[in-house]
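We emphasize that the prediction below concerns an isolated chain of 144 residues; any contacts that depend on oligomerization or on bound cofactors are therefore not represented. The input was used exactly as deposited, without trimming of termini.
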Amino acid sequence: MLEKFTVIDLIKTRSASIVTFVGNTVKFNTQTAAELRYPAFVQLLSNPKDKQFAVRACNEEDPNAVPFSKPEGKQIYQIKIGCTAAVDIARKMAGWTPEEDWNVPGIFFADENAIIYDLSTAFAPRPKTGGRKKAAAVPEQDGK
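Result of the prediction step, given as a token string:
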């Protein structure tokens, strides 16, 4: 009766994490820090064969560790890492131009304390909104 079913993989879960590639910067939303349990340092990883990018919590002394998160409750709006090498690798894997900005949703892997981003699931960021609208120009009248 259950031959059409598959076992649910409990070690990977849908994630609220989003990574954004903009310019030479990798940006992570605050949910990323929460899911990784607010690590002070992370490693950025790539899987060119499957076109995947990943972030994994690590210790400061681990190879290529980069500063990441403030402690819980002290986190700011988003985490920005200026890393041209990582951005270039992601853009090359996905075939993106340097002018394009992309958001990529992640999948959390609890056993690895890592989040993997499949670059094929990328979507363009929403245009920025807000600010004051400019007043419409009033056409000049002839003075009649």
